[in-house]
Design a protein that fits this description.
The chain is mainly alpha-helical. It has two domains: 31 residues, no CATH class; 63 residues, no CATH class. Helix content is 54%, strand content 8%. Strand 1 and strand 2 form a beta hairpin. Pfam families: Rhomboid. Its main location: membrane. This is rhomboid protease.
Length: 106
């Protein structure tokens, strides 16, 4: 993917009343918008989102569920089928989240 041009990234944007003068860079404003497609050239986020976890407990609970069900599914459908289902499900969940307009920014 090609990087965003400097004239786009360094564009100034003003928010709020002029008396407060809230001028920020494009990057600073866009990092608070959660849609993957709104931040230029970062579609990779829709594929890699399932690799990120909220903490050790979240990671361990996900791994235990994947081991518990993944081994059974792999025996029945094979490795390629399980991997394909895993990534397509993750991509569909990302697309659904993006289209439903969820904004879980902090």
């Amino acid at each position: 993917m090609r990087p965003t041009s400097d004239d786009n990234r360094m564009r100034k944007a003003s928010f709020g009343p002029a008396a407060e003068n809230h001028t920020i860079n494009y990057d600073e404003h866009m990092k608070y918008i959660c849609f993957s497609f709104l931040y230029p050239h970062q579609l990779w986020r829709m594929i890699t989102v399932n690799l990120i976890h909220m903490g050790w407990f979240h990671l361990l609970s996900n791994l235990s569920k994947q081991l518990m069900y993944g081994i059974l599914l792999e025996r029945k459908y094979g490795s390629v089928g399980v991997i394909t289902l895993y990534w397509l499900s993750e991509f569909g969940a990302s697309l659904n989240s993006m289209l439903s307009g969820s904004r879980n920014c902090k």
